[in-house]
Specification:
By secondary structure, this protein is α/β, with parallel strands linked by helices. Helix content is about 25%, strand content about 25%.
Length: about 260
């Protein structure tokens, strides 16, 4: 198997090393792991692409490239340039430093990379490591992802149905904020919403008098509804959420039929 890996934390991020180890296990002794990742951190860019700026590529080693762009840019340049003669069989994005459960999903560059791969017709999975008091101070806070990642991905690939649809599936996988030995299992989960948790800003005034604002996240230890991603994560489970890029509220199509004229 030929696997492309990317992330949004940047080419030097420790989570990318974890993902490389997971991908190497998954690819097998005859497989290949290719890395095309952002040259600099791109957290929070979502599915952004550099539509009006070129993306500079730098080869750092065999099958290892840094791109001055977003995770979605990295997937695009990998598929249409770096790997155009040897396309990947699978795209993995992560392992993100921090969770991409619940509302975080909507902002995540890690998710954006997987989404772009799906739009390119490739199987794609985003992986993120939830942080909390039970794993933040571990020697390797990514150990839950490292130990359980390959097995979780194999189950996903084994159970994914063949589809012929406009917007193919991709997956959002979040590893719980616990040590590897304390992971209870894997649960299929919906995308949740943390009650009362939103992004905000913290204003600052620089010595020059210029005004700045830092974007701030909310409490990540708030559970979502039962059966959803962050609820399972905080209970010690790996969550797997199947997703599509189609944002249509399909359940409202009949109810809103009166809009037609």
């Amino acid at each position: 198997m030929r696997i492309l890996i990317t992330n949004d934390d940047g080419i030097t991020a420790p989570g990318l090393e974890t993902l490389h180890a997971i991908a190497t296990d998954l690819a097998g002794p005859k497989g290949e792991v290719w890395t095309v990742a952002p040259a600099f951190e791109q957290s929070g860019v979502g599915h952004c692409i550099n539509y009006v700026h070129p993306t500079m590529m730098t080869q750092l080693g065999e099958r290892r490239y840094a791109a001055e762009g977003s995770p979605a840019d990295c997937v695009l340049v990998a598929v249409h340039d770096v790997m155009k003669d040897c396309p990947p069989d699978l795209v993995l994005s992560g392992v993100n430093r921090g969770n991409n459960s619940a509302e975080n999903t909507l902002y995540s560059g890690t998710i954006g990379g997987a989404m772009e791969a799906a739009l390119q017709g490739l199987p794609a999975i985003a992986l993120s490591q939830y942080f909390g008091p039970d794993n933040r101070e571990l020697e390797d806070p990514f150990e839950a992802a490292l130990k359980h990642g390959a097995a979780v991905l194999r189950r996903i690939l084994r159970n994914t149905p063949d589809e012929d649809v406009d917007y193919p599936l991709f997956y959002n996988v979040n590893f719980p904020p616990v040590a590897a030995k304390d992971v209870k299992g894997t649960r299929l989960a919906t995308q949740g919403r943390r009650p009362g948790v939103v992004f905000g800003t913290e204003p600052h005034t620089a010595p020059s008098g210029r005004r700045f604002s830092w974007i701030k996240g909310g409490d990540q230890q708030v559970k979502t509804a039962a059966g959803s991603d962050a609820a399972y994560n905080l209970e010690g489970y790996v969550s797997v959420t199947p997703m599509r890029a189609d944002l249509t509220a399909h359940n409202m199509m009949d109810s809103l039929a009166g809009i037609n004229s």
